[in-house]
Design goal:
heterodimer; A: 148 residues; Cytidine Deaminase, domain 2; B: Ubiquitin-like (UB roll); two-stranded antiparallel ribbon
């Protein structure tokens, strides 16, 4: 299960809409071991492609150094599909390299750059095996752990 | 003095979970051979047909070795090497 706050999920969806028809990509980092996404980090798709995404190699090094310094890990790795469903493609599965991450996919095939409906689904991808998991959206006003 | 090598999560099963290991070698290829002698299987995850795999990024200090000499990049004592799998897909 992926628990994610509404404001972080909205930020991912806004990025996907803005970059359509190219694929958008990024990370939501969180404290090591906590499995809670907290810091939204949109990345440049170095491939600038409607069918492929890749973090720029220098950006990738800077991202991982920064997370190391903050004692964070990539809790969520997100990207969009702009013409197909929000399900990992064969290439997504081959290149998935963070066994602890939630792979969040957004499909903008219906909405494009507009306000229409988006499809959002989350997966674990470990050793080539894809497992879908529920996405639980928590209120932006009541972060996890806060007493009611 | 040795060369410090930072290992990504997905390859830590080869290093007993260690994030950082040390190795020696005058080139990246020699360093990878040295690492593989203690962390068997690591080389196959990094190298294919004598070249670095397309979706594995290796950095010497702050520079992607693809912009240096690739797997033949020369190393010196005290260098820091970072291995990061590409974040990519379709």
């Amino acid at each position: 299960m992926l628990e994610i706050s509404a404001d972080l999920l909205d930020a991912v969806i806004a990025h996907a809409r803005a970059d359509h028809p190219d694929e958008a990509c990024g990370v939501i980092a969180g404290p090591e071991g906590a499995d809670t996404p907290t810091r939204f980090i949109p990345m440049v798709n170095a491939a600038r492609s409607p069918t492929f995404y890749e973090f720029d190699s220098r950006d990738l090094l800077a991202l991982y150094r920064d997370m190391d310094d903050r004692e964070e890990e990539p809790v969520v790795i997100y990207h969009s599909h702009t013409a197909t469903e929000a399900y990992p493609s064969r290439t997504d599965i081959v290149y998935a390299s963070e066994p602890h991450a939630h792979y969040l996919l957004v499909s903008t095939r219906e909405c494009g750059n507009g306000d229409g409906p988006v499809e959002v689904r989350s997966f674990r991808i470990v050793d080539g095996a894809v497992t879908e998991e529920p996405v639980v959206v928590t209120s932006a006003d009541a972060p996890i752990g806060d007493a009611p | 003095m040795a060369i410090e090598v930072r290992i990504p999560t997905i390859l830590r099963p080869y290093t007993d979970g260690d994030k950082v290991v040390e190795g020696n070698g005058a080139t990246l290829a020699a360093l990878i051979d040295d690492l593989d002698s203690r962390h068997v299987g690591l080389r196959d995850r990094l190298v294919e047909d004598g070249a670095l795999r397309r979706f594995v990024n290796v950095y010497l200090n702050d520079e992607d070795v693809r912009f240096l000499g690739g797997i033949d990049t020369a190393l010196s004592d005290g260098d820091s090497v970072t291995i990061l799998p590409a974040v990519a897909g379709g």
